[in-house]
Specification:
The complex is a heterotrimer. Chain A has helices spanning 2-30, 36-41, 48-57, 64-76, 90-125, 130-144, 147-158, 176-214, 217-224, 229-251, 253-267, 272-280, 285-313. By secondary structure, chain A is an all-alpha fold. Chain B starts with a helix and ends with a helix. Chain C is built from 12 helices and no strands. The longest helix of chain C is centred in the last third of the chain and has 37 residues, at 190-226. Chain C is elongated and about 75 Å long. The chains are: A mainly alpha, B alpha+beta, C mainly alpha. Chain C: It is found in: Cell membrane.
Chain lengths: 320, 584, 287
C-alpha cells in the first residue's frame, strides 16, 4: 500500500519534471531577441515578401501566448516544430541522428561500466596497494581531463591509424561485413575518448561503494567462518556493493550526454551531440529546444528507472 | 560477458584484416569535403550555399556562365532574343537534351518551373527575387520559351533558377513538404543524386545522358565535416580529395605535403566594416542607436582613413586577400572598380586626427574623443582577429572600441535593427553585379516595424539610387559598366561601409588521384563555389594508379590491438575458471 | 585552523589535512597557480600578447626564444598559458561561489523551514539535479550575450543542486539533535538556530563542496569556450584550445599549442579535486 503511494509519488514527480522541461525549453529559446528568418536568408537575394512568407511558415508571426499553446499541444502529439536549418520536422531530424549516438554511447557505456566496476572492485579490495593508488590516480586525472581535449590529443597521436571523422567511408562495399568493419574502425577513437572519461567516474564510484560495504559486520562474520578472501569478495561484498554503483551509473546518465556532445563534435560523429553543436551555429532555436527537451526528458526517465530499479533490487532501500 | 564482447569485437576486426579493404576495380570516386549543412535538396526551398551548389550539379539553368571567362553561355537554352522594347524575351531550347531518366527536355519544363514559382508562394522561397518582374511565361511549342517582364530588365540572362522536369514535379502535391529524395533524383545536370544521409554524406553518379557528355569519372561524393580543420586533416590522410574554404594557416600547412596541390583563387566574397550612418527605415524614421557622430560623412571618412588595410591583409589574412575598394571583387574584372589617385584614401592617422578635430570632436583630457561599439561574429576567425587590429588603429586616433563578438543571430539582430556603431559584414557577389548594388539602395532598408530589410549598411543616397535605376535598364554593356563603376565610387566616397578585403578562396586537392580541375575563371579561379559546375564536371582522374591507401596497415594495427585484448581477456577468464574449479 | 589541519585521520593513522599528502601537493600546486595568475598580468608586457604588436613568426615550434613555441599569431604560448590562468581561475572560483551560495541558501531554507516552500524548493532542486548541467549551460550561453559574466552565470546556475541536497540533509540532521531542540525550546528564533547551530555545522561541508565545484567549473568553462561560447576577447585556457582548433593546430601537428593549455587545466582541476578529497576525509567522521 505505502509502496504504491510512493511509486505514484515518484511517477508524479517525474511527470512534473517533464512538464518543467517542456516549459523551460520554450521560454529559454523563444524570449531571446533576434529574427531567425533574417539569419536564414542572409547573403542571398531576398525580398520582404519572401521573409514574411518564411515567418508564416514557421508560425513566428503569431503572438507569444498563441505560439506557446501551439507548442504545448504539438509537443503532446510528439511534434517538436520545424528546424530552420533542415526545413524538416525537428522530431524527424532528431530520430535520424539517434542511431549513431546510441551506438557510440552504448558501446562506450558497456565498456566503461565493465572496466570501471572491475577496476573499482580491485582497487577497493586492495586498498592503499600500488594498484589502488595507480588506478585511483589515473581515474582522478582522467576525471580532470576535458573530453574534447583528450579527443584532439588521441587524433593527433594516432596519426593515420584511424579515420579522422564520421561513422563510415562513402566508398565501402555495401555488404554487411564490410560496413560493420568500417563503422567499427571509425568507432575506435570516439568510444575510447568517451570510455576514458566515463570509466574514471564509474571506477571511483564503485571503489567508494565497496569500501563502505567492507565495513559491514557480515563480512567479518563471513571471514570468521574461514571463507577465502577471494570468495568473500565475490560472493558477499561485491554483489551488495555493485547495486548502488549500477544505479549511480544510471543517475550519471547526464554525464554521458555531456561527454557525447563534445566527443561527437571533435570526431564529426553524426549523432545527436553533433546535431546539438550544429544547432548552436545559427543558432537554430527550434532544433535546440527540441534537443533540450529530448535529452532532458531522457535523463528524467533514466533517473526514474534507476530509482525504481534500486527499490526493486534492494529491499533495504526505503526511498521508493 | 565482457570477455565475450571483446572476443567478438576482435574476431570482427581480424576478419577485417583478411578482407581487402580497397577493391582494385572499384568505381573512380571524387570525394569532396563540405562543412556547411544541407538545408534541403528541394531546389525551390534550398537556401544554403552548399545546397545550391549541389542543386547546380543536378539541374541546369536556362543559361550558364562559361568556365574560362564567366560570359553567358548555353544552358538548357542555346539562343535568346529580347524584343525591341526589351519587355519580351524569347529563349530557344534545342533538341536532343535529355533528363537523366531518358525523357527529352522541352520548353514546357522551363515554363512549368517558372510558372510554379509565379503561382506558388512557397516555390518562391529560394529564388523568388528572380521572377518578381515577370508578367508571364509561356511555351508556345516544345522549343520556345517566351517571358514577358513588367519592366525592362538587364539581368534576364542571369536567372539562377534550377529547371526541374515537369513529368516528375507536376505530381508533387505540396512543394513545402517535398524533400526531393526519391533516389535517383531525375535531373538534367552532369550528376544525378543517388543517396543522401543527413550529416554524413551525399552521393551522386555521373549522368550518362548529360548533353555535354558524361564526366570523366564515375561518382562524386560529398562528405560532411564539422569544421575545416577536420577536413584538412582528412585531406592529408587521403580520406578525401578536395577541400575549400581553408583558413590561411591551414593552407600554409599543406605547402609541403606530397600528393597535395593547393589552389589559391580569387574569391567572390568581400568583407566589410559597416559604419552606421544614422540608420533610418524605408519611411525615413530613425531606427536603432548608432552613435550620432557617425552621421557626419567627414567622421566616417576619417575612420576609413585610420584603418590600415594593408596590415589587415598581411596579418589577418596572412597575405591571402586583396585590399578592399569597391563593392565588386576583382574576380569580376570588368565590373571591378579601383579608386583613382584623386579619390584614394591612403592610410594616414595624422590626417584622420586632423579631420576629426576639424569636425568638432577634439580629444578630451584622457586623449579620447568618443567611444564606439564594434560588433562581430564569435567563432569567425576573421572577426576575432581583425577586431584586435581595428581596436588598436582606431584607438590611436582617440576612438576606443568596445568589441562585442556575438552569435550569428545576435549579429544579424544588431544589424537589422541598427543597434551598432561599427559591425563586420560581408557578401558573396554574383557574376551580374545587380544584387550587391541593389542591396545598398534606399528601398532595401527595413519597414517601419524594423522588418523586411535586406540591407545592413542603411545606405540611402539619391545619387546612388538614380545610378542604380539607370544601370538596370542600360542594355549597352560598356555604358552599364561605367555606371556600375560610378556607383561604387559614390559608395566609397560616402563610406556607409569600408570594404576591408577580398579574401582569396583557398582550396587544395589530392593531385595524386585527380590530375586536373577546371577553374572558373581560367586564370586564378575557384574549383568549388563557382557560378557553375565546371570544377566537379571537368575533374580528370590521375590514371588508375594505386590510390594512397593507408587504411590497410591501419586496420591491421587496429585488429592487432584488439587481438591482444582478446588474449588478455581469455587468459583472465581461464584463470578465473581454474580458481573456481579449485574452489567448488 | 591549525586544529582543522591536525584533526581527523589520514592514511596510515596520521591525522589532519597535512597527513593527506596528495591534498598537500594539490594545495601547493594551487598556490603556484594562484601566484602565476596574480603575477602574470603584472609582469607580461602588454605588447607581448597584443596580436597587432607581436613580431615573432606564427606556428614556431618550441625553441630558445619561445620555450613553448608560438600560436597562430606569433604570440608566445608560454605567456598565453600564464595569462590565461587568471581568467580560468576567476571563472572557476566565481562560478563555484555562485553555485555553492545558491545551493547553501536553498538547502538551509528547505531544510529548516519545511512546509510548502520546502516542498517546492525540493522539487526544483530535484529537477535541476537530473537535468544535464552542460546542456543547460550551453543553452543559457547561447541566448545570453557573450562575456565572462554569462559563462559564470551559466555554470553557476546549473551546478548548485548537489550542494543544496547535501546542505539540506545536514540541516535536517543537525536540527534533529537534542541541543538544537533545546535551543528552540528556550526561545531561539530562526535566526538564532540557523546562525548559531546550522551554519557552523554546514560550513565545513560547504567548503569541501566548493573546492570540488571549482574543479568542475573550470572544466565546464573550457568546454563552453571550446564550443565557441566563451568570451572571445579574453585569454583563457579553454579559449586557447578553441583557437587551436579554429586555426588548425591538429593538421599542423602543432602539439605545443594544444598540449600546454590542456595540461594546465588537468593539473589545476586535479589539484582542486585532491584538496577537496583531502578536506572531505578530514571533515566527514569515519565510520
Amino acid at each position: 500500500m505505502r509502496l504504491g503511494v510512493r511509486l505514484w509519488g515518484r511517477l508524479g514527480g517525474a511527470a512534473l519534471s517533464l512538464v518543467m522541461v517542456a516549459v523551460l525549453g520554450f521560454f529559454l529559446f523563444r524570449v531571446v531577441p533576434g529574427d531567425p528568418v533574417v539569419s536564414m536568408t542572409r547573403g542571398r537575394p531576398t525580398t520582404a515578401a519572401m521573409q514574411a512568407e518564411l515567418r508564416t511558415q514557421f508560425g513566428l508571426d503569431r503572438p507569444l501566448h498563441e505560439q506557446f499553446w501551439n507548442y504545448l499541444t504539438s509537443l503532446l502529439r510528439g511534434d517538436l516544430g520545424t528546424s530552420f536549418t533542415f526545413r524538416r520536422p525537428v522530431s524527424e531530424v532528431i530520430l535520424e541522428r539517434l542511431g549513431p549516438t546510441l551506438l557510440l554511447v552504448g558501446t562506450s557505456t558497456v565498456i566503461a561500466v565493465g572496466l570501471g566496476l572491475w577496476l573499482g572492485v580491485r582497487a577497493a579490495w586492495r586498498r592503499d596497494s600500488a594498484f589502488d593508488r595507480a588506478a585511483t590516480g589515473v581515474s582522478l586525472t582522467l576525471w580532470a581531463v576535458p573530453t574534447f581535449w583528450l579527443g584532439m590529443l588521441l587524433m593527433m597521436a594516432t596519426g593515420d591509424l584511424f579515420p579522422s571523422r564520421g561513422m563510415r567511408d562513402t566508398d565501402t562495399a555495401p555488404d554487411f561485413v564490410s560496413q560493420a568493419l568500417d563503422v567499427g574502425h571509425h568507432l575506435v577513437l570516439p568510444s575510447l575518448t568517451l570510455v576514458a572519461v566515463v570509466c574514471a567516474e564509474y571506477m571511483l564510484v564503485m571503489r567508494s561503494s565497496l569500501l563502505e560495504e567492507m565495513h559491514a559486520p557480515y563480512l567479518t562474520t563471513a571471514r570468521a567462518k574461514g571463507l577465502r578472501d577471494d570468495l568473500v569478495r565475490r560472493r558477499h561484498a561485491v554483489p551488495n556493493a555493485v547495486l548502488p554503483a549500477i544505479t549511480l551509473v544510471f543517475l550519471r546518465f547526464g554525464l554521458v550526454v555531456a561527454g557525447a556532445i563534445t566527443t561527437e563534435t571533435v570526431f564529426s560523429w553524426p549523432g545527436l551531440g553533433l546535431l546539438f553543436y550544429d544547432a548552436l551555429t545559427g543558432p537554430d532555436y527550434f532544433l535546440l529546444q527540441g534537443l533540450l527537451v529530448v535529452t532532458a526528458g531522457a535523463v528524467v526517465v533514466m533517473n526514474l528507472l534507476a530509482e525504481l530499479l534500486y527499490g526493486v533490487l534492494d529491499p533495504r532501500v526505503k526511498v521508493v | 560477458m565482457r570477455v565475450k564482447l571483446c572476443a567478438l569485437l576482435a574476431i570482427a576486426m581480424t576478419l577485417g584484416m583478411a578482407t581487402p579493404s580497397a577493391t582494385a576495380q572499384g568505381p573512380v570516386i571524387l570525394k569532396v569535403a563540405i562543412v556547411q549543412q544541407i538545408d534541403s535538396m528541394n531546389p525551390f526551398l534550398a537556401v544554403f550555399q552548399s545546397s545550391t551548389e549541389i542543386n547546380r550539379l543536378m539541374y541546369d539553368y536556362l543559361t550558364a556562365y562559361a568556365a574560362d571567362d564567366q560570359r553567358v553561355t548555353e544552358g538548357l537554352a542555346n539562343r535568346w532574343e529580347p524584343s525591341p522594347d526589351k519587355l519580351t524575351w524569347t529563349f530557344t531550347v534545342p533538341e536532343g537534351k535529355k533528363w537523366s531518366d531518358g525523357q527529352l527536355v522541352t520548353a514546357h519544363d522551363v515554363a512549368f518551373t517558372y510558372n510554379l514559382m509565379l503561382n506558388d508562394e512557397v516555390a518562391r522561397t529560394a529564388n523568388g527575387s528572380f521572377v518578381t518582374n515577370f508578367a508571364s511565361v509561356a511555351a508556345p511549342d516544345d522549343r520556345t520559351v517566351v517571358i514577358r517582364t513588367k519592366a525592362p530588365q538587364v539581368t534576364m540572362l542571369a536567372l539562377d533558377i534550377p529547371i526541374v522536369p515537369r513529368h516528375v514535379w507536376e505530381k508533387v502535391p505540396s512543394i513545402k513538404d517535398y524533400a526531393n529524395d526519391r533516389m535517383p533524383v531525375v535531373g538534367s545536370g552532369p550528376f544525378v543524386l543517388t543517396d543522401h544521409v543527413a550529416g554524413q554524406f551525399i552521393k551522386l553518379k555521373a549522368n550518362k545522358n548529360y548533353w555535354r557528355g558524361p564526366a570523366k569519372y564515375d561518382e562524386l561524393h560529398f562528405v560532411y565535416f564539422q569544421n575545416s580543420d577536420a577536413a584538412v586533416q582528412a585531406l592529408t590522410k587521403g580520406e578525401i580529395d578536395l577541400v575549400n574554404r581553408m583558413a590561411p594557416a591551414q593552407f600554409d600547412s599543406l605547402g609541403d605535403k606530397p600528393g597535395v596541390t593547393r589552389n589559391k583563387a580569387q574569391g567572390r566574397r568581400f568583407v566589410e566594416l559597416l559604419i552606421n550612418p544614422g540608420a533610418q527605415t524605408r519611411t525615413g524614421e530613425p531606427i536603432g542607436d548608432g552613435h550620432a557622430a557617425l552621421k557626419d560623412v567627414r567622421v566616417r571618412r576619417a575612420l576609413a582613413q585610420a584603418i590600415d588595410l594593408d596590415a589587415l591583409v598581411q596579418r589577418v589574412s596572412l597575405g591571402y586577400a586583396e585590399k578592399g575598394a569597391g563593392l565588386v571583387p576583382p574576380v569580376f574584372g570588368k565590373w571591378h572598380w579601383q579608386p583613382g589617385e584623386q579619390e584614394l584614401r591612403k592610410f594616414d592617422p595624422a590626417a584622420a586626427n586632423a579631420a576629426l578635430d576639424a569636425a568638432g570632436h577634439p580629444r578630451k583630457a584622457d586623449g579620447t574623443r568618443f567611444g564606439l561599439r564594434l560588433v562581430g561574429r564569435a567563432g569567425r576567425a576573421y572577426d576575432e582577429q581583425a577586431s584586435e587590429y581595428l581596436k588598436r588603429q582606431l584607438g590611436d586616433i582617440g576612438i576606443p572600441l568596445d568589441v562585442r563578438l556575438v552569435s550569428d543571430n545576435q549579429l544579424n539582430e544588431a544589424t537589422t535593427v541598427a543597434t551598432y556603431d561599427l559591425a563586420f559584414s560581408g557578401w558573396a557577389t554574383n557574376v551580374d553585379p545587380d544584387f550587391v548594388l541593389g542591396l545598398h539602395t534606399c528601398a532595401q532598408r527595413p519597414g517601419a516595424d524594423g522588418k523586411g530589410g535586406t540591407s545592413d549598411a542603411y545606405f540611402c543616397d539619391a545619387t546612388y539610387d538614380q545610378l542604380y535605376a539607370r544601370q538596370l535598364s542600360e542594355f549597352d554593356e560598356g555604358k552599364r559598366v561605367e555606371i556600375v563603376k560610378q556607383m561604387q565610387a559614390r559608395f566609397y566616397d560616402q563610406v556607409p561601409a569600408v570594404v576591408l578585403a577580398y579574401e582569396n578562396a583557398l582550396e587544395a586537392y589530392r593531385s595524386d588521384r585527380f590530375a586536373r580541375f577546371t577553374t572558373q575563371p581560367a586564370q586564378g579561379g575557384v574549383i568549388m563555389a563557382q557560378n557553375g559546375m565546371w570544377g566537379y564536371y571537368g575533374a580528370e582522374p590521375a590514371g588508375r594508379a594505386a590510390p594512397p591507401s593507408s587504411r590497410g596497415p591501419a586496420l591491421a594495427i587496429g585488429g592487432l590491438v584488439l587481438l591482444a585484448l582478446v588474449v588478455v581477456g581469455v587468459v583472465v577468464a581461464r584463470r578465473r575458471k581454474a580458481t573456481a574449479g579449485e574452489r567448488e | 585552523m591549525s586544529g582543522f589541519l591536525t584533526r581527523g585521520t589520514g592514511r596510515g593513522g596520521k591525522t589532519g589535512f597535512l597527513a593527506h599528502r596528495a591534498g598537500v601537493a594539490g594545495a601547493a600546486v594551487l598556490a603556484v597557480a594562484a601566484l602565476v595568475a596574480v603575477i602574470a598580468p603584472l609582469l607580461i608586457p602588454a605588447d607581448a600578447l597584443d596580436v597587432t604588436r607581436v613580431t615573432a613568426a606564427p606556428w614556431q615550434s618550441p625553441g630558445a626564444d619561445h620555450w613553448l613555441g608560438t600560436d597562430h599569431t606569433g604570440r608566445s604560448v608560454a605567456l598565453l598559458v600564464a595569462q590565461g590562468a587568471g581568467t580560468s581561475l576567476f571563472v572557476g572560483l566565481t562560478a563555484a561561489v555562485l553555485a555553492v551560495g545558491i545551493g547553501t541558501l536553498v538547502g538551509i531554507v528547505s531544510g529548516h523551514f519545511g512546509g510548502l516552500l520546502a516542498g517546492a524548493l525540493l522539487r526544483v532542486t530535484d529537477f535541476f539535479l537530473v537535468l544535464p548541467a552542460l546542456v543547460l549551460a550551453i543553452a543559457l550561453s547561447t541566448v545570453l550575450p557573450r562575456g565572462l559574466g554569462t559563462i559564470v552565470l551559466a555554470i553557476g546556475l546549473t551546478s548548485w543542486p548537489s550542494t543544496a541536497r547535501m546542505v539540506r540533509a545536514q540541516t535536517l540532521t543537525i536540527e534533529a539533535r537534542p541541543f538544537v531542540e533545546r535551543a528552540r525550546a528556550l526561545g531561539g528564533g530562526h535566526g538564532h538556530v540557523i546562525g548559531r547551530h546550522v551554519l557552523p555545522s554546514v560550513v565545513p561541508l560547504v567548503l569541501v563542496n566548493a573546492t570540488l565545484a571549482v574543479a568542475s567549473a573550470i572544466v565546464a568553462e573550457s568546454t563552453l569556450a571550446f564550443l565557441g561560447l566563451g568570451d572571445p576577447t579574453r585569454i583563457s585556457w579553454g579559449a586557447m584550445l578553441h583557437q587551436a582548433q579554429l586555426h588548425g593546430a591538429v593538421p599542423q601537428r602543432a602539439w605545443w599549442f594544444l598540449l600546454p593549455p590542456g595540461v594546465a587545466i588537468v593539473v589545476v582541476v586535479l589539484a582542486f579535486t585532491l584538496v577537496g578529497r583531502a578536506l572531505e576525509a578530514v571533515v566527514t567522521p569515519k565510520r
